Amino acid sequence: MRLINDKYLTDRFFYLFGGVILLFVVSFPFNFIFPIAQAVLVLTIGFVIVDFLFLRKNNTQLTAERILPKVFSLSDKNKVIINIKSLSDRKLKLLVIDELPVEFQKRDFHKELTMHPGEELTIDYRLRPVVRGEYHFGAVNIFVSTNIGLWQRRLQFGKDQSIPVFPSIIQMKDFELKAFNRVTSIKGLKKLRRLGHSYEFEQINNYVKGDDYRSINWKATGRRGTLMVNQYQDERSQQVYCIIDKSRMMKMPFDDLSLVDYAVNATLAISNIVLKKNDKAGLITFSDKLGVSIKAAYSSKQLNKILMALYNEEERHLEANYELLYHAARKLITGRSLILLFTNFESMFALDRVLPILRRINILHLLVVIFFENTEIEDFLHKDTKTLKGIYTKTVARQFATEKHQMAQKLKQFGIQSIITRPEDLSMNTINKYLELKARGLI
């Protein structure tokens, strides 16, 4: 119930007057309670007046500011900070309600605080966006009350702030740190020793078990009295294209994030690693028609071009046109390249239908088909079941899970590299595959 300007009555007010009314009701059969009820009513009205006077503007001054990062990272927990400073000469109770973007669908977000005169407080919370695009914040609403707590005064700060949600820059930086960390071994990313090498000499090092014996430098070995090996630089300027299928099958959500968005995050992470390895990174998206096409290049602006293209990509509702993909592989990709194809197959029939096209692309380029495990099915298989219906359902689920691995084996039979991964492990497994292919000298 709104009263005077920005003043509101609290629940405590209605509870208190409800008690007063109850006293008057009880006083009908018990007359001796009536004077008590009258005294309580007068006292209550006095408290209401005093509390209202305490909430005058000059006694409840606050300043508040919401601090947002420049961008939010998709699927990550992004930190939001609200700084509040009290300019009041009284102790205040605060109810802070931040008007979050509608995409989060949080209608019960609030924080309760107690502030002393001149105190500064910081509230921080985290938001996990699962849709790319621009998010709009409303005002920061602070409801101020005194210790009496019968009135609240609403103060509003920081209206209409907007922030874009980009593919996960946090994950990109995290995987960059792991991929190039030479001091410690971090779980997930694999350090793979090269099985071959280019002919660009880098340095002479001591022999370590696992080094290629063909690289032993016998002259240096004779001088030092211990085995020494030549080390060579990785071959550079190889083309690596990430191709994202954004068709109907990639709209499946896992942990509130669609497969397309998992692929978008992985593409940004792998593109960053590729450029740091001095290779050329490119991007193509397709569904029933060709989407964005960025030619593979090695430049300081390439990662930003890929980032902006991924930010604007949207899923489509139709089936993927793999004939169009083959046309793109022939016409848009010049020279033999590594192609990382992010797609999904839910049945062997779906794979068989496009396998001839994938084989043709694999002749032209080094193709890696990346598709997803159905984590809902995998988690269901680990649950205990005691009913006959549950046993039948679990048997069918196991057939679906087994068929996924049969698809990977079938691709291997035709010389096509593949990755079958859980959606949350996509970026890590893709980077590992790239590093493996680099180590084997296949690109």
In words, what does this structure look like?
- The chain has eleven helices and 21 strands.
- It is α/β, with parallel strands linked by helices and 443 residues long.
- It folds into three domains: 1-166, Immunoglobulins (Immunoglobulin-like, Sandwich); 169-177 and 185-191 and 235-439, Rossmann fold, CATH 3.40.50.410; 195-232, no CATH class.
- Strands 18-17-14-19-20-21 form a six-stranded mixed sheet, sandwiched between helices. Strands 1-10-9-5-6 form a five-stranded antiparallel sheet. A three-stranded antiparallel sheet has the order 2-4-7, with no helix packed on it.
CATH architecture verdict of the largest domain: 3-Layer(aba) Sandwich
| Count of helical regions | 11
CATH class of the largest domain: Alpha Beta
What is the CATH homology-level superfamily of the largest domain? von Willebrand factor, type A domain
Uncertain runs are 182-186
Mean pLDDT over the residues: 86
Task: List key phrases describing it.
single chain, alpha/beta, Immunoglobulin-like, Rossmann fold, five-stranded antiparallel sheet, elongated
Q: What topology does this entry show?
A:
Blueprint: E1 7-9, H1 11-26, H2 33-54, E2 62-67, E3 72-73, E4 78-86, E5 92-98, E6 111-115, E7 120-127, E8 133-137, E9 140-145, E10 151-157, E11 161-166, H3 169-179, E12 201-206, H4 218-224, E13 228-232, E14 239-245, E15 253-254, E16 257-258, H5 259-276, E17 280-286, E18 290-297, H6 302-312, H7 322-331, E19 338-342, H8 348-364, E20 366-372, H9 375-381, H10 388-413, E21 417-421, H11 426-439
Parallel strand pairs: 3-11, 14-17, 14-19, 19-20, 20-21
Antiparallel strand pairs: 1-10, 2-4, 4-7, 5-6, 5-9, 8-11, 9-10, 12-13, 15-16, 17-18
